[in-house]
Amino acid sequence: MGVPGLTSFIEGERNILKDVHFRNSKLIIDGCILYNFLYFNSNLDQSHGGDYDAFEGRIHKFFQALKDCSIDPYVVLDGGSNSNNSKLETFKQQAQSNINSASHLSRGLHGRGSLLPTLVNQVFKQILASLSVPMAQCTDEAVQEIASLAHRWNCPVLSNDSDFYIFNIKAGFLPISHFQWQNVSVNKTCSQKCIPCKRYTTRSFCRYFNINKQLLPVFAAVVGNDYVSLRNMGIFLRWEDHTSVEGRFAHFNGLLSWLASFQGQEEALDSVLKRIDHSYNRQKMSLARSGLSLAIEEYKVPSGFLESFFSSGVAPGPCRLPVPHRVLPDWTLLPLMKGRLPSCIVDVLQMRRQIMGTQVEDLRMPSGNITSRPIRQVLYGLLLAGRRECQSSDGPPVEYVEEYDREGMNLTSSMVEAVLPSASEQLQLDTLHRAPHSVRCEVFLETLGVSSSSLSGVPPHLRLPVAVTCYWLRHAHPQPDKPLLEALLLGLVYGVLRKQRKIQRAKRPERQLFERLIWHIKKSTGSPDLVVAHSYSQWQCCLKDSIHLNQLLSLPLPEPQCAWLYKGTLVHQLEAKLRGTMTPDSLLVECHSFEQLYRAMLRAIHKSHAAGLKSKVSGAIPPSLKKPQDDLMARMQVLALEEDDSGAEGGENPKQEDDVGWTLVRTRHKTKKRYNQSQNPEFSQKQGRISWE
After folding, report:
1. pTM over 0.70
2. Domain extents for the chain?
3. pLDDT tens for each residue of 639-669
4. Cα(328)–Cα(322) distance, rounded to whole angstroms?
5. Which fold has domain 6-297?
């Protein structure tokens, strides 16, 4: 991000970065940079889909360190892509780089690239909310808004985006790579805790190179940044002749020496263009002029709207947004800034485009995003088709979104049709938040092909992931088998158990279950099982897109805490053991409450498939991924029979539950004939009650 090579150049000049002990101040944090930094620098799993609970722990420790030093954090996240479309090539290059990293990790080649797990952004936002850390999600890229807020509050910025070496931030820029938050120390002069770090200011940089601060944007534009690259235009200017310095950064030193003779931006830019005009044709001259002007413009600090948001909780009015972003309905602005709506809706509404993420999976197979595409098609339908004021008698025109996703090892694009399920045909985007809860819930469940009755026995906070699991079992390719499902559900049990241990002291059976589960968490340095990785990658794609749809529909289902839903190193190990002699019962033995939770989720999945409910949008599934349901139903019947044999069958009509507590039917029954168990499991029940908090 920013200006390639500039960070290394500045760190090589010893007199520019100054050592400081930071405390007792506001701090504007580049949120996307922070969660990348915390995940990648904590040696957390990248090959098995992520370890989100460990990531949560790192986030807690980071913000506790800030609190200990009386530092008030304000986290700012990127929103949609750049509204003028100038960075599309940069985003495509990043996407291709992620595909390459996924390939390396899938073969066990660590250290050849980094890849964030699918749900990191969502986990990060949820944890900030739980910690009451002030956070804002911009409608556009965050860098200009961050610079604006830092200027107004006269406080520093924490990031590693080299664009902040160009913005004139008086209080300075703190490179996150030098921010020693794990080494909190006591300042001897004031006896207060502080964080050792390095600070950069444009004043020290310009004094060192003897140039005017106004020329820094020209320097960045000519060297090349995310917006423009003269080299990519076929324009090569030699700056090394203007310095006696040799080596890797001679062109940086030469350009800075050359710029030292100018006072203002226009004068310097005109001189650069004259150098181009002498050596290249008019077409390249025109491209260079427009590109350099655009790049320089990006370093102008706007008035911004983050100050009013953080101080008053007010979102900007539509008139204050960039013109392209005024397509956003008024009601979406505040939840979007609070991070309660996905930022992808900005790109879909504004540019009809989305660049998909990549995970470690079998790259010979179709992307895991294909499996969740029907869910996104409904999201697109609500955003695009759901905003038409009138429809012709021949039906509405078809809307499409361009999706960039991998095909094999290459980034390609395809046009994806926006689809509206029958339950949402009368909904309009501008009033979607006011639609009855029952309608919004019906749209969501219809999209996933799940009935509300099948989820009634599941705790509210797990209904969405269980519904996603039902969808995944029908749509994933290859079809998930029994060990894959069992390991996934045991992973959900682990998440609930770990969460409960944080809230209250666990009883002995629960402690023993926790110890049995964590015993299976082993650090893997080799390549993952790609069949398993591909299947769970599809599940995470389905979960992410379902969460986004649920958010757009104003949460008809309770939003789950994603940090507790998936632990890749655990479920991969469990899946391998379940293919051997281990069974879920052997893990859940003597821990009846969590055994009941496992059975309740399994029962809900079986009921959903037994009902034969199919999604009304299944026609959007590519023909290559359509498959008969017979094999899947047979597998679910086997799981149901095994559930009955284990002696843990539950009732069909559990007590009405709410979001605070959950009453689960606990069962003891005598052995029946297998036929009767499979056909009429409710006849063999005795009911007891276990309360879930």
Report:
1. yes
2. 6-297, 354-389+396-692
3. 554 554 544 433 333 333 333 234 333 333 3
4. 11
5. Rossmann fold (3.40.50)
